[in-house]
């Protein structure tokens, strides 16, 4: 029997545990399979069956998902078709990716909740804008990988012909990289707050559509991709979640990752995590932002912690028997 209640301050009443889930790339696309809409829908189905189990166990969840491969492909398709139809700006491609992925999660989550006997819980995707700082130094230093993988030779051609910034991505090939400013404010946060108690909300897809506030107060999209783990940490922080659950491909975070002396970690304090960051154990653009997001959230309030694990281990990880927990020192 899963226990998913936390004590309130008077220690007598219990309240449901609030969890913000950040879904990584493998929750949306299966490695080695063609990136078709049908394949994404099937992968999302498997993911949602696991997420529905969290809901059935009584956890209150909101879902944030990535969009790196998807937004890159939408952008590429739009740029490639510029002779027949005007190319869409980056922020619009981000919005399209939220709609397409959110639609699949909504549909699959509905089915999965039905199977768990919880068809009374509504699911909705919020097209979410996230305010960023126009002076964020990230705009001068593109480092978020998006889209498909290329060989080194193809990357050289794209650099020359299209002016893209290209970078090797964690031993997996070469990818286009774009600016990834920090999330400052979730514009639609008030909507999440009003829906939280009744509805499973999918929000901040792809980290949210990055926008800046103009002098007259209106919002304008900017060409960038926010890191979804940092956006999920922001959501979790502001909604007062108990746990930030970051789901990715690996069961646990490791030091000396990929080396013969790799050591998987059951837990680490924020201070230990910072030492490991300084020692370079976490790859930028992959594990590093997850650990940073976990530390940021854990530090944001008493009794909060983060867990990084795989989809398959999600339920056990919330119980504290799997994954890597990022905890306060005391
Ligand atoms: N220290 C580490 N411990 C575990 N995994 C790591 C580490 N450093 C890099 N990685 C890699 O980071 C990957 C997760 O990042 P990524 O695939 O970008 O995330 P996402 O699931 O959000 O798409 C893991 O699958 C693993 O290959
Ligand atoms: N926006 C974002 O962080 O996407 P990925 O997780 O797919 O890289």
Provide structural commentary.
This protein is α/β, with parallel strands linked by helices. Helices cover 35% and strands 23% of the residues. An 8-stranded mixed sheet has the order 5-11-4-3-14-18-19-17, sandwiched between helices. A hairpin with a 5-residue loop joins β8 (165-168) and β9 (174-178). α1 crosses α3, α2 (68-80) crosses α3 and α6 runs parallel beside α8 (287-298). The radius of gyration is 19 Å and the shape is globular. The model has no long low-confidence stretch (mean pLDDT 93). Phosphoric acid mono(formamide)ester is lined by residues 24-25, 66-68, 206-207, 225, 227-228. GO terms for molecular function: carbamate kinase activity. Pfam families: AA_kinase. Belongs to the carbamate kinase family. It catalyses: hydrogencarbonate + NH4(+) + ATP = carbamoyl phosphate + ADP + H2O + H(+). Pathway: Metabolic intermediate metabolism; carbamoyl phosphate degradation; CO(2) and NH(3) from carbamoyl phosphate: step 1/1.
Features:
19 strands; 8-stranded mixed β-sheet; binds phosphoric acid mono(formamide)ester; binds adenosine-5'-diphosphate; 330 residues; alpha/beta; 4-stranded mixed β-sheet
Secondary-structure element sequence? EEEHEHHEEEHEEEHEEEHEEEEHHEHE
Number of strands: 19
Return the structural class: alpha/beta
Residue-averaged pLDDT: 93
> How can the largest sheet be summarized?
8 strands, mixed
What share of the residues lie within helices?
A: 25-40%
Number of helices: 9
Ions and ligands: adenosine-5'-diphosphate, phosphoric acid mono(formamide)ester
Our Rg estimate from Cα atoms comes to 19 Å
**Per DSSP, what share of the residues sits in E-state strands of 2 or more residues?**
15-25%
């Amino acid at each position: 029997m899963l226990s998913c209640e936390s004590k309130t301050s008077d220690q007598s009443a219990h309240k449901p545990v609030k969890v913000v889930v950040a879904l990584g790339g493998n929750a949306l696309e299966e490695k080695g399979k063609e990136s078709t809409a049908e394949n994404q829908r099937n992968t999302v189905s498997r993911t949602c069956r696991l997420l529905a189990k969290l809901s059935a166990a009584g956890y209150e969840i909101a879902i944030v998902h990535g969009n790196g491969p998807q937004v890159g492909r939408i952008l590429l398709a739009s740029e490639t078709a510029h002779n027949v139809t005007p190319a869409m700006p980056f922020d619009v491609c981000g919005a399209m990716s939220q709609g397409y992925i959110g639609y699949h999660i909504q549909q699959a989550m509905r089915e999965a909740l039905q199977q768990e006997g919880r068809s009374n819980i509504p699911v909705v995707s919020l097209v979410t804008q996230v305010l960023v700082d126009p002076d964020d130094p990230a705009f001068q230093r593109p480092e978020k990988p998006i889209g498909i993988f290329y060989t080194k030779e193809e990357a050289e051609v794209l650099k020359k012909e299209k002016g893209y910034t290209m970078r090797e991505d964690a031993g997996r090939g070469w990818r286009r990289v774009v600016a990834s400013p920090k999330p400052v404010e979730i514009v639609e946060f008030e909507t999440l707050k009003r829906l939280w108690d009744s509805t499973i909300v999918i929000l901040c897809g792809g980290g949210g559509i990055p926008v800046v506030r103009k002098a007259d107060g209106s919002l304008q999209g900017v060409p960038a991709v926010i890191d979804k783990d940092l956006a999920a940490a922001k959501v979790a922080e502001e909604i007062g979640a108990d746990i930030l659950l970051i789901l990715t491909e690996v069961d646990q975070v490791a030091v000396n990752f990929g080396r013969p002396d790799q050591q998987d970690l059951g837990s680490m304090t924020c201070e230990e995590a910072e030492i490991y960051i300084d020692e370079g154990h976490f790859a930028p653009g992959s594990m590093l932002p997850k650990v940073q997001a976990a530390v940021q959230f854990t530090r944001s309030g008493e009794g909060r912690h983060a867990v990084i694990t795989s989809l398959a281990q999600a339920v056990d990880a919330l119980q504290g028997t799997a994954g890597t927990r990022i905890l306060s020192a005391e």
